[in-house]
Amino acid sequence: YKLWNGLKAVDYVPGICCACGMRSRLGFLFPTRLRSFFCNPGANYIWEKQRTGGFEGEIASVVPWLHGKPVVVLSSMEAMQQVLGYSDDFDKLTREPGTALFGTNVVMLQKEPWKKHRRVLNPAFSNKLYALVWKESMRMFRDMVDTEAWDKKQSVDIPLLNDLTTKFTINIVASCAFDFPSTWSNSIASVGDEMTLQKCLKVVLDDIAVRLLAPKWAYYIFPFGALKRVDTAFSTIFRFMRAQIALRREKLVSEDMSDEDTQGKNTIFNNIVKANMEGGKFAFSEEEVIGNTFIMLFAGHETTARTLNSLLSLLALYQDEQDKVYQEIKQILPDGRDPTFEDFESFTQIRNCIQEAMRLYPPFVALDREVMKDVQLGVTNKVTGEKEHSVVIKKGTHIVVNLLGIHYNPRHFPDPETFKPSRWDDGSVNPDAFGGFGQGPRACIGRKFSLAEATCFAVMLLRDWRVEVDLAEGETPQQWQRRVLTDKVNGQRGLGPISVKFVRRKSQ
Ligand code: HEM
């Protein structure tokens, strides 16, 4: 009966039938290896599908017979625009599991309550913030080089690129969004007694399914390592946030709020805490303060770190592209001077490389929405892109906008597997097919924040160092990319362990 209803809800769009739904909690728990007799797509389904040739059509369905909701997966630009646009037919999920874990926040709320949150946060995202991001990224980069004593070395081995980039991006979001002082040697990423903040944030990401599935009492009864780890991670982060919120409240009370200086401090954290203190129509509850603090800390670092990981790996693989970036840096900074925020827009090669890295390895592989009333979805021809017919999708159905599928759709991106940064300014692609930062009213508020940070990091690094990877004997760059990046990539955990080497440039 469940299957029958599910098939009706998706208007019999072709796809797979399975035991557990694509986004169901139980589906995250059960092994996907049981597929042959107990089909379970699992948490990493989008990447697995991509590695084996992608979904059959630009619209596909995944309908469960045991647990979870029917899902429609969309892999075309046209469908992405329809779903992520301004229409009221689609919204964020009514029961977003993340809200229970992190608290009510701007990312997960549905349209009406979301407006208040955006209103509180918007003023903080200004050019003043992006200039600060640039300045802090410069300071942190120099501090990293000094502390790690890179200036005394001709080459530096980076056994785990992810650890380096994550520490960098946590420090930047801490100082620019929250005004927490941080240096490379005394980093905010290292606070915490039992577990460092950096480790806690990683555990939250890796073991989110455990937190979602385990009831509270399980933590007191079962001695499992994963439960203990997740509990320590969540309690450390929440303790840290509560302490910081209390301190900020005291600071804001002691400052005169009508003072011109204080008014000028439209920082992200100040705005969140002030929205709770000032009351009124746009007041935040305690729970909303926690939820937004958490989401800003989290969304503000992890995605940028992943982008830097894919960017640096791809530039290490495609040395000719790295050379083009280096030539541009030399041209913009002819005397070897440090880059300034005013130079930001001039680094077009790096911008194209970042966009291309995000196309191939988008930090969010898919975006979730819910159908709010029965709706017609256009079905396009895979080759021409012409609308062929429509299907009627029932209210309550879960929509997955498959960013990975769209980014590898040859209709939008010819030769999609190839890292080709020039495609972004040679007129060969429609930029609207890029969904890395989302689209429409819920598109990423931190886009320019992260682009300023990633650009500054990349310019500082590539000006002085060449990035290299160790290819196995006889291995081509494409084979390395497949072995180390694509095959290890995981929808929840991002890219696998990447080791690279920074080699000092000869002109140094
Ligand atoms: C490369 C880095 C980043 C990527 C790839 C990224 C990606 C995204 C995507 C795809 C969305 C849309 C989600 C959806 O439609 O369901 C989003 C929303 C959001 N991002 Fe980012 N993001 C990045 C950096 C940041 C940073 C640095 C911040 C904050 C400092 C941030 C804060 C947010 C917030 C608050 C939203 C929710 C916007 C809303 O619903 O109004 N992001 N991001």
Automatic annotation (TrEMBL):
Gene3D superfamilies: Cytochrome P450. The keyword Heme applies. Heme binds at C444. It comes from the Eukaryota. Keywords: Heme, Iron, Metal-binding, Monooxygenase, Oxidoreductase, Signal. One of its GO terms (molecular function) is monooxygenase activity. The keyword Iron applies. InterPro entries: Cyt_P450, Cyt_P450_CS, Cyt_P450_E_grp-I, Cyt_P450_sf, Cytochrome_P450_Monoox. SUPFAM superfamilies: Cytochrome P450 (SSF48264). Coiled coil: none annotated. Its cofactor is heme. Belongs to the cytochrome P450 family. This is Cytochrome P450. It comes from Botryobasidium botryosum (strain FD-172 SS1).
